[in-house]
Design goal:
- The chain contains 15 helices and 23 strands.
- The protein is of the alpha/beta class and 449 residues long.
- It has four domains: 146 residues, 3-Layer(aba) Sandwich (Alpha-D-Glucose-1,6-Bisphosphate, Chain A, domain 3), CATH 3.40.120.10; 86 residues, Alpha-D-Glucose-1,6-Bisphosphate, subunit A, domain 3 (Alpha-D-Glucose-1,6-Bisphosphate, Chain A, domain 3, 3-Layer(aba) Sandwich); 96 residues, 3-Layer(aba) Sandwich (Alpha-D-Glucose-1,6-Bisphosphate, Chain A, domain 3), CATH 3.40.120.10; 83 residues, Alpha-D-phosphohexomutase, C-terminal domain (TATA-Binding Protein, 2-Layer Sandwich), CATH 3.30.310.
- Strands 1, 2, 3, 4, 5, 6 and 7 form a seven-stranded mixed β-sheet that branches. Strands 18, 19, 20, 21, 22 and 23 form a six-stranded antiparallel β-sheet that branches. The protein has a five-stranded mixed β-sheet with strand order 9-8-10-11-12, sandwiched between helices.
- β10 and β11 form a beta hairpin.
- The mean pLDDT is 95.
- GO terms for molecular function: intramolecular phosphotransferase activity; metal ion binding.
């Protein structure tokens, strides 16, 4: 057994198998999950990692030992688990380590209706109770049924975004040997889409590249395939397929901020005057475009717990993050990369222009992307940056330090898990963005020397 305090994070469970997360631990978490949530039934799904089926089976044993009945959905993406939790009205657990390397695994937990469980909403209590239950065995008394939810998931998504009438599209999808290889064919079946699959074989060792589309090197194969096949666009999913990155017909990355604005406009057409959530790293263009289309933009801290909490508080129809997570009120306020991809396909397929032209209307500023710097004294680096920009812009310390000037802004915030400072900068022209970015990085670099 590993140290539960180490593998229980703010929003989920994540650790190296078996050193930090093993089957006895998973079994104890299953029992603790039922005790803490009071669940009479639980739905469980898992990704394609070699360790996922045995860990899920151990969790199920633990849950059944506390008289809970289990619906075992088997292989699924994280948003399929959210669909299961929402449609069945059951608490759920997904076994995945998302984009982490093969040796990792973990659990994402939610209450009925896909309501997330985090450190301040039950995860800490589950951790503490599980620590007491490790090694305690009991005879399973709850029932278990296996239920294939893939077709229901695919049908539900197609009711939210109708793609049946779009023009024929050629789409390259890089599943990264992750769960997109399982879910994409089911969702696209019968649609006017010519699918060009890349790395659809389910393989938790990730033999081709990491299933993390935020890293540019993991997009190279997809970009080449889009150009070689003359495709209309490319889609890259992470390991558990809850994030989606978009490549246009030229092989160029489309900013998640542009995707957020595009989807927001489509949602506002259905829900005039609605609220749209965006985190503080998304482009200034997002709130501008939301207002122009009659919506109400609301800015939050980075992180899915903040996005989901604000969506629930405000009744927002949609929320987007710079990390390619997209949240939908019609999907139980949960995130679905697949649903965001379908909105992009609909926007493209309902007219004749190429994707690069479609998204150009939503790309108003030049962004640095996230630049990480290793800094031992983060507080000192932030102090020096604050001092250097004291008379040059407005300060906001909601999440790290955000400085906003005339036609530019940057955010510098500490990582929650590593000795890093993360910088995002944006400006109306590229030269100004570069100057701001480099000035901040120079100050930070002097502290880390």
């Amino acid at each position: 057994m590993g140290d539960l305090a180490k593998i229980f994070k703010a929003y989920d469970v994540r650790g190296v198998v078996p050193d930090e997360l093993d089957e006895p631990t998973a079994e104890a978490v299953g029992a603790a999950f039922v005790e803490v949530t009071g669940a009479q039934s639980v739905v469980v799904a898992h990704d394609m990692r070699e360790s996922s089926p045995p860990l899920a089976a151990a969790f199920i044993r633990g849950a059944r030992s506390r008289r809970a009945d289990v619906v075992h959905a088997g292989l699924g993406s994280t948003d399929l688990l959210y669909y299961a939790s929402g449609s069945l009205g059951l608490p759920g657990v997904m076994f995945t380590a998302s984009h982490n390397p093969a040796r990792y695994n973990g659990m994402k937990m939610c209450r009925a209706g896909a309501v997330p469980i985090g450190g301040d909403t039950g995860l800490t209590e589950i951790r503490d109770r599980a620590a007491e239950l490790v090694g305690v065995t009991a005879t399973p008394s709850g029932s278990m049924i296996e239920k294939d939810l893939l077709s229901g998931y695919a049908h539900h998504l197609r009711t939210l975004v109708d793609l049946s009438g779009v023009r024929p599209l050629k789409v390259v999808v890089d599943a990264g040997n992750g769960m997109g290889g399982h879910t994409v064919p089911a969702v696209f079946e019968g649609l006017p889409i010519e699918l060009v699959p890349l790395y659809f074989e389910l393989d938790g060792s990730f033999p081709n590249h990491e299933a993390n589309p935020l890293e540019p090197q993991n997009l190279v194969d997809l970009q080449r395939a889009v150009l070689d096949s003359g495709a209309d666009l490319g889609l890259a999913f992470d390991g558990d397929a809850d994030r989606c990155w978009v490549i246009d017909e030229r092989g160029e990355s489309v900013s998640p901020s542009a995707i957020t604005a595009l989807v927001a406009v489509r949602e506002l057409a259905k829900h005039p005057g609605a609220t749209i959530i965006h985190n503080l790293i998304t482009s200034l263009g997002v709130p501008e475009i939301v207002r122009e289309h009659g919506g109400v933009p609301v800015r939050t801290r980075v992180g899915h717990s903040f996005i989901k909490a604000e969506m629930a508080r405000t009744g927002a129809v949609f929320g987007g993050e710079h990390s390619a997570h997209y949240y939908f009120r019609d999907f139980w306020f949960a995130d679905s990369g697949m649903l965001a991809a379908m909105h992009v396909l609909a926007a493209l397929g309902e007219q004749d222009r190429p994707l690069s032209q479609v998204v150009s209307a939503y790309s108003r500023y030049h962004a640095s992307g996230e630049v990480n710097s290793a800094v031992s004294d983060q507080a000192e680096a932030l102090r020096r940056v604050r001092e250097a920009f004291a008379a040059r812009g407005e300060f906001d310390e909601t999440d790290g330090l955000t400085v906003t000037g005339q036609g530019w802004w940057f955010n510098l915030r500490p990582s929650n898990t590593e000795p890093l400072l993360r910088l995002n900068a944006e400006a109306a022209d590229e030269a100004k963005m570069t100057a701001i970015r480099d000035e901040v990085l120079t100050i930070v670099g002097k502290v880390s020397e």
